[in-house]
Amino acid sequence: MGEKFLRKANCRDLSYLRRPDGTKLREGLFFRSASLFKAKPQFLAYIKEHDIQTIIDLRTDVEIEKKPDVAIEGVRYLHIPILKAETIGITHGKGLNGFTKPPHMPELYASLVSAPESKEGLKQALSVIFDPERKGAILWHCTAGKDRAGLLTALFLLALGYQEEDIYADYELSDAPSKKKGRLYANLIRFLMWKPRLAKAVYLAMRAKREYLKSAIAEMKRQAGSIQAYLESLGVAWDQVASLFPIAGV
């Protein structure tokens, strides 16, 4: 995937990853990305080309109202929020004043797999992804495509038997675009608002550091006893998942 517009959209086809036995998903079925607000024509053409018929938007109502996805003819759009309110502390409300104190990211990730409303959102999203009757390819996204989309991707890959190390590596691919934007906001806050502590907190909140995702996976294990048990609590039938997906050979 060398297209620049895909890197900017933090979009990737998850078929590039291999499971421990060397198998992988068939190309062009499962995609993760940032939001489709002001999506470039090349990205929209990419969606059509890959027969993406379902898009799951994991953002809050407020985020969608401010920055709605581009409407795409023939694509089923599903809004399944993982957070009921903007609790991440970065509202982008009115310029730099729209930033509030961001949370401690490992704690936020742990809450995303434990809060009832978050678990319900994850359950609904996974039911769509794992629906054997669903037509075409599917794409899921949040705002930057790293936190909520990253967590949903991790759950999807864990259900299919991918190794945690490979899941962390995929998650960290979102760090480059997030880090660049985070540095910009942090510098503006530091030099225009004179709030260096807030600048540092915002920078860290906008990163994709594996310790964040590790915190979520540790919470799943703590809460349910195992990843398998946690996924089953979300309605994922462990013994049926593999048969739902065409897996490419080595």
Describe the protein.
The chain has a 5-stranded mixed β-sheet with strand order 1-3-6-4-5, with helices on both faces. It has a two-stranded antiparallel sheet with strand order 2-7. The protein has helices at residues 4-8, 41-49, 61-66, 105-112, 116-129, 148-159, 164-172, 175-193, 196-205, 210-224, 227-233; strands at residues 12-13, 24-25, 30-33, 52-57, 76-79, 137-141, 247-248. It is an alpha/beta fold and 250 residues long. The model is unreliable at 89-96 (pLDDT under 50). The protein is globular. It has a single domain, classed as Protein-Tyrosine Phosphatase, Chain A (Alpha-Beta Complex). It has 11 helices and 7 strands. Helix 8 runs antiparallel to helix 9 (196-205).
Set out the fold topology.
Elements: H1 4-8, E1 12-13, E2 24-25, E3 30-33, H2 41-49, E4 52-57, H3 61-66, E5 76-79, H4 105-112, H5 116-129, E6 137-141, H6 148-159, H7 164-172, H8 175-193, H9 196-205, H10 210-224, H11 227-233, E7 247-248
Helix pairs in contact: 4-10, 6-7, 8-9, 10-11
